[in-house]
Amino acid sequence: MRFLEDGPDIPESLLEARDLGEVVFFCGAGISSPAGLPDFSKLADKLLDRLMAQTSRIAREEKESLDRVFMAMVKEFGEAAVGREMTRALRTPRNVDLRYHRAAIDLSRGNDGVAKIVTTNFDLLFERADRNLRRYIPPNLPNLTQPQPVDGIVYLHGRLNNTVNARAGYVITSADFGRAYLAEGWAARFVRGLSERYTIVLLGYSANDPPMRYLLEGLNSRDDPSRRSLIYAFVPEGSAAAEEAWRDKGVTSIGYAPCNDAHSGLWDTLFVWAEAARDSERWREKQVALAQRQPAALRPFERGQVANLVSTATGAQAFTSAPPPPPAEWLCVFDANSRYAQPGKLGWDDETEIDPLDVFGLDNDPPRPEPGPGGRILAPGEDLLGWRRGDQHCPERQRLMGHSCE
């Protein structure tokens, strides 16, 4: 479903899991970039400049991985010096825009009302966005082998520390990553448990970020039948290499048009989605208001929102009990066979030709396929009158066109 016409198409399974409180938002440096904080790459460059590094700068110029660059910095200047410069580089501006962090927090709350955020960032912006968040700092992470849920924010790689020993506990060097994900393995165990229990949404990462490289390659290398939860990542459209990199790591990508450097093509949707999450009743009222209009008067993404409404028992009840009742033409939207019927004239005395996909189609409907043997077309779009997960019986007779139950 699309919340905005040009926004990303959020999978129905993800929308449902979020509503049920089964989604964890896993947030990287990209969520703090609008606040002016550096990502992992820019943080390395800032520290190299401030420390006037020489040996470790060579590692950077030779395009060593960032965790190895930080390793070289620690060897050259010591943990305390690197930690002090990290604290300065990640100091939060006073009048910072916290909308991005608030949206992630609100989206991580399902019907249980519990925030479920995991971050590899060190900054404290999530805590500024919600001062009531419970926090977890390594090694005291939630024990996911027990019924203990994620409740608050987990600083997987450490939390910004303003004390003299600010470096202690940060996961930034190759040695740190090795301990966290391989030798001691506490980070790998936690994320493995996370993937077995929740749907994970990656926000603010690229596929080749050092945290993702360690994390996802480790998960994807395990042929573990218990890992059945999906992992999603938002990916700018037009980047085939990025999509392939995520796919190779076992992640389902959700494409979006970036629109600008601030990635408003993604964030505008997340802001609206978060607003819907904060007040689900008001959002449902908006969907019902759309349903009370003629489908042909709506845009495809708006018809998609109505289709999303009726895909749940609560939404279907709201649809059927709405005063005044929605027009009967919505049955043509819900029936995939009707949407994919061949174009035809309005009537015997009217030469105007209408394509059902133009007036009843959904925003995620694939193009009409070529007819098969006998001229039959197998409708590829979603069929809301067919059997759906959770239905008690197959409604093979409750259709406008066709009688198959597949």
List the SSEs and their pairings.
Layout: H1 12-19, E1 23-27, H2 40-50, H3 55-61, H4 66-77, H5 79-89, H6 99-108, E2 116-119, H7 125-129, E3 135-136, E4 152-155, H8 174-183, H9 186-197, E5 199-203, H10 210-220, E6 231-236, H11 240-248, E7 252-256, H12 264-278, H13 280-291, H14 300-310, H15 313-320, H16 330-334, H17 336-339, E8 344-347, E9 350-354, H18 356-360
Major sheet strand order: 3-4-2-1-5-6-7
Q: Looking at this structure, what is the CATH superfamily of the largest domain?
A: TPP-binding domain
How many domain regions? 3
Strand content: 5-15%
The CATH topology of the largest domain corresponds to Rossmann fold
Share of residues in helices: 40-55%
Order of helices and strands: HEHHHHHEHEEHHEHEHEHHHHHHEEH
Quick check: average pLDDT? 88
How far do the termini sit from each other?
A: 23 Å
Structural class category: alpha/beta
Largest sheet: 7 strands, parallel
Low-confidence stretches are none
What is the count of DSSP helices, taking H or I runs of 4+ residues?
A: 18
Using DSSP, what is the number of strands?
9
The CATH C-level name of the largest domain is: Alpha Beta
